[in-house]
Amino acid sequence: MREALKAAGDGCRTYGIVAASSLRSRAAYTWNFTLSLFFQMLMYSADVAALLLMVRTAGAIGGWGTYDILFLSGLVLASSGVYRVFGSELHNFDKYLVHGEFDGVLIRPAHTLLTVAARSIDVEQGGAFLEGVVLMVLAWRHLAPDLGLGVVDALCAALAVACGAVIWFAVVTATAALGFWTTRIDDLQPVLLYGPETAVSYPLSIYPKAVRWIFQTILPVAFGSYVPAAAILRKGPPLSDLGWCAAVAAASFVAALGLWNLGVRRYTSTGS
Question: Which of 117, 229, 236, 240 is nearest to 170 (CA)?
Fold first, then answer.
């Protein structure tokens, strides 16, 4: 047990050193960072505007009004923004497999997942997180008086963002891990990442039963979006059920890490 804790501590320290180096390299270009952050927020604003326009045109969607959808979209944006900051390098993981760059990762003292993730801390993607928080706050101001939202609900919303971030990081980790078998992951990402991220910005109740089952089991992204949002907005389970969201987030990460470790054991270099 002591050796495992020591190994974990050493890995985290190594991750911190590599991550700090990545942050310093990005901070050296202040204007580039500022403009990238601005355009990220602008891009996500366009997506949200299109979503709200559709809601206003169609009326309530699945019993969710404009500000309900705004809160749900903000929750998805905020949680996905966190995982994109710390997991952006995993989006390009196939380059490690195609060019044999993973060989260099294997000789590092930290865990291979930490080493890969730390190589690129994409702070600009924090624009999604900031915009998500803004959307949640705007929706909160309109919904709080009628729903009686208070401090406990605000803490639950913060927990929901954290659970969503862990679940999305687990999904991107599992997607990258599949590359150990498929080599390329760019064809998997639209199905496992981008599509579900867009889908759960809408109430889960509008989808067929099979789709709802997938988002609650095989790809449990609903537990970082719809399920906690429905609880907070008094549209579904009680707030106490958010404990299940935390449990699913932890289980998702453990499963993704297990798949990653399995892939590492079968890895053979394809570089020259």
Answer: 117
> Rounded to an integer, what distance in angstroms lies between the CA atom of residue 160 and that of residue 77?
12
The structure's pTM equals 0.83
Q: Is 89 helix (H, G, I), strand (E, B) or coil?
A: helix
Residue ranges covered by each domain of the chain: 2-266
- Rounded-to-integer distance, Cα 81 and Cα 73, Å: 12
Nearest to 70 by CA among 148, 131, 136, 130: 136
Distance between first and last Cα of the chain: 39
For the CA atoms of 226, 228, 232, 238, the dihedral, rounded to the nearest 10 degrees, stands at 110
Give the model confidence (pLDDT) of 108-146 as tens digits.
Answer: 878 899 888 888 777 777 778 888 898 899 899 989 998
Label residue 222 exposed, middle or buried (CB < 10 Å: 0-12, 13-18, 19+): buried
What is the DSSP code (8-state) at residue 205?
G
The Cα diameter of the chain in Å comes to 64
Phi, then psi, of 99 in degrees rounded to 5: -100, 5
